[in-house]
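Give me the fold.
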Amino acid sequence: MLETHKRTRAFITENWVFIVLILISIAGLMLMLYVTDQGVSLGSDSVAYIAAAQNFLKGYGLSWVSAKLEVKPLVHYPPFYPMILAGFELASINAIDAARMVNVIAFALGIFLIGSIIKIATGSNLLAIGGALLMLASGEQVEIHSWGMSEPLFISLSLLGLTLLFLFLRDSKTFYLVFSALVFGWVAITRYIGAVYIFAALVVLVLDTRLEIRARLKNLLLFLVISTSPLALWMMRNFIAVGKISNRTLGLNTETLERDFNVGFRSVMNWFLPLRIVELIQSKFFITIGTTIFVLIAALIIITFLHFKARQDKDEMRIVPNPFTVLVVFTLSFLFGLAFSVLLTSPTPDVSERILGPAYVLILMLVVLVIGAAIRTKRWVILLVTIGLVVFLFRNKAVYSYWVVRDIHGGEGRFYTSRGWRNSPVIAELEAYPDRIIYTDDIAAVYLLAGRYSSLIPIRIDLSTGTPNEDYLQTLASVRNTVSSGDGIIVLFSPYSLPHEYAPLEDLIEGFEILYESSNGIIVSASP
């Protein structure tokens, strides 16, 4: 008994920091359960994932199914997240409930992994706990994890892959390298931009100067084959199914460049500064540019300083290459990958705080490492400034997190989970037309809220290329013929503000009768 007690006490003494990290993670889990007590928020992307998961179990494969049961293979979205949801559906757990479970677990796991990475990289218990607490207090991440999107899974898997990579760099065990490659392979099929993390990991392995060139090449080849296999298989499936590996096309896009820069700048500044200061900075263009240049120069100076300091302290380093370099490589890879997607692909992703979320967790760890380096200088001026900045950062994070939690929990739902959508009179009216083919401007709403397959109204301008759709008139005629025969109806939720790429309202409803109209939309059919 005494021996068992001694072993238990020794275990707790040696691993107490991980016990604390688990407790902080449990706090994060409870927070997300509280925030999402009415379910996760759902947007159009959420519905695409949910539908793909449910269609997979119905035998349609990962796909979207139209009103006429035409199967359209999932290509725009990667497969891993809907496959996870399908697994829950197989266990008789609804995909919407499953999305909440995934997010809650992902947030708790993210907290633990951030603390673990910092512990592995620096050996500091204080920094590890501080990093975990910062993640817990990050309203930006609470917001992201409250949506039924792929980002929460993407972030947690990325952190898991990074943790395993750090363990490999510390212990040189092939076991860690193999599983890190496997996880990063999953990351790349959770969100396509995850492929840049494979590139980042390969760069890090090249920088592992402890090993001879032959050993490094062996590790590179092993990691490359394992990590790229899932994405390669998915692209082969896409090519077989639709004749192309993706629905994205290459081409310079400058139309949204200014908006994307402003949104990106505002999001990143909001991570560390109060909103009033960010608004002041963005009030004048020259202030925005000046601040951007200042931040980039400051970051470059800090990166250079820590890099050379790490080289001077090489004998004391726990990780080679040093942890700061590893995180910088991953951060820059993500940001350059996102910039490439925004500038050179179509349809271009919309820059938002959600899209930038994966960069947040990397920058957060970099900030913690910088704080640790400042503390180790043992100069009282630097220590005082650092302590002041840490207090300011925690205060800013906590205040923002409070308002985010209050807004989400105290609200009436967001987007398709809002009260307006849940009580939509148009959705309720659809029950009167159970056998009609539905053409609509919002196929996600019809699927999620009415449980019906539908087809999108004709598109004049191709959403991917921005060029006129050659099949527009033929598709419009087909839709009108179906409605004229009494087999179909047109359901429009925004009839008087349709996007310019869609068919004009008059082309759709001319000669037909509006059977039902409310503030939520209209239902159109042929005259009785």
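Strands lie at 63-65, 71-73, 249-250, 345-346, 437-440, 455-456, 488-492, 513-518, 521-525.
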